[in-house]
Write a structure and sequence with these properties.
It contains eleven helices and twelve strands. It is of the alpha/beta class and 245 residues long. Strands 1-4-5-6-7-10-11-12 form an eight-stranded parallel beta barrel, surrounded by seven helices. α1 runs parallel beside α3 and α9 packs parallel to α11. The longest helix is centred in the N-terminal third of the chain and has 10 residues. The chain starts with a strand and ends with a helix. 48% of the residues are buried. InterPro entries: Aldolase_TIM (IPR013785), His_biosynth (IPR006062), HisA/PriA (IPR023016), HisA_bact_arch (IPR006063), Isoase_HisA-like (IPR044524), RibuloseP-bd_barrel (IPR011060). It holds the Pfam family His_biosynth. Its main location: cytoplasm.
């Protein structure tokens, strides 16, 4: 069983950037042309892209919608999108304009009815972002920490027809110091849906380590490591497919 490697494109003010631990004031800009960046990853063999509207995540509504749609129109591989998706209308808008799956985060905690309606109308096209800081789930673009644990969220997700869970360890995101393997293993063991790992993957050895956590880890999102060159997409994909679960 192979594990899919998903390059990340984080959008801020129409640019491709990476943040350190989700801090909007600590950014590195990599491109002014998001569609070209998407084509770059597709050309290197990516099977899927993970796109985040950083402004939307903080503001609570899409801010880079046109840039996201430009990405979906520029490539043929599936695109999953998160950031500021907190209404059924926004979900419908994205999915009707070429986005393959949407990622809900804060909305799940603050409006459970949205999750119920979205999963009923779009079964298996909804991913849940579980973003963790100091063992608790963070919300509003990681600017606030809730009183919910990952286990609380996993338990609440069981009744719904979801595509999977994206588990992000915020302290590792954009830091290039490796993933939090114990936290990921715990998530894989407790999540009722397949888990996509995110945060800290830096080198080939990290891909091997994540893959060995078991078959419930179905994918890994890689961002800064690809942009900084500590990991190539081809090497990541080879590692993801070559290590037996």
């Amino acid at each position: 069983m192979s594990m899919v490697v998903i390059p990340a494109i984080d959008l801020k003010d129409g640019r491709c950037v990476r943040l350190r631990q989700g801090d909007m004031n600590q950014e590195t800009s990599y491109s002014q042309d998001p569609p070209a960046m998407a084509q770059h990853w597709e050309g290197l063999g990516a099977q899927r892209l993970h796109v985040v509207d950083l402004n939307g995540a903080v503001d609570g509504k899409p801010k880079n919608f046109d840039h996201v749609l430009a990405i979906t129109q520029a490539i043929s591989i599936p695109v999953q999108v998160g950031g500021g998706i907190r209404s059924l209308d926004t979900i419908r808008e994205y999915l009707s304009h070429g986005v393959s799956k949407v990622v809900l985060g804060t909305a799940v905690l603050e409006d459970p009815s949205l999750l119920e309606e979205a999963s009923r109308e779009f079964p298996d096209r909804i991913l849940i972002g579980v973003d963790v800081k100091d063992g608790m789930v963070a919300v509003h673009g990681w600017t606030n920490v809730s009183d919910s644990t990952p286990e609380d969220v996993f338990q609440s997700l069981k009744p719904y027809a979801l595509s999977g869970v994206i588990f992000t360890e915020i302290s590792r995101d954009g830091m290039l110091d490796g993933p939090n393997l114990p936290a990921l293993e715990h998530a894989a063991r407790n999540s009722p849906f397949p888990v996509i790992a995110s945060g800290g993957v830096t080198r080939v050895e990290d891909i091997h380590a994540v893959k060995k956590l078991g078959p419930n880890i179905c994918g890994v999102i890689v961002g800064k490591a690809l942009y900084e060159g500590t990991l190539t997409l081809s090497a990541a994909m080879e590692a993801a497919s070559s290590v037996p679960c």
